[in-house]
Amino acid sequence: MHVMEESSTDQRFREMDKRFDRLEAATAASTAELRREIKQSVAELRKENQESNAGLRKEIQRATAELRREIKDSNAELRIEFLATNERVDTLQRTLLQIGGGMIGTMIVVFGGLAATQI
């Protein structure tokens, strides 16, 4: 009976070894499949990221070019306004000089008249 128990125990161990071998093989196959899927997913994500970055770069370049045009146009408008303001200041200066000259002339005449009447 002891021999029989040993052979049935040996038989159970062999069956358990086979089950463990099958489980190990299945686990190895699943792990390999998961690794392939992960590598594929990483490659797809990398490609999407590169495409997205390229699109963003183009958008940034377009926006930068547009901003440069706007700045250039604004600078041109500011130059025109500055020149117009400068012309108005020049006109005011001339007007003030003419008024001042007229006032000085008037004062000279008035003082001359006063001096003439005093003498």
Q: What is the terminal separation in angstroms?
A: 166 Å
Spans of at least 5 consecutive residues whose pLDDT stays below 50 are: none
Structural class: mainly alpha
Reading the helices and strands in chain order gives: H
Please give the largest β-sheet. Answer: none
Residue fraction in strands: under 5%
User: What portion of residues is helical?
Assistant: over 70%
Structural write-up:
- This protein is mostly helical.
- The protein has one helix at 2-118.
- The radius of gyration is 50 Å and the shape is rod-shaped.
- The mean pLDDT is 89.
Pick out its properties.
single chain, mainly alpha, rod-shaped, 119 residues, 1 helix, 98% helix
Question: Which secondary structure elements does this structure contain, and how are they paired or packed?
Answer:
Layout: H1 2-118
Summarize the structure.
The protein has 119 residues and is mainly α. The protein is built from 1 helix and no strands.
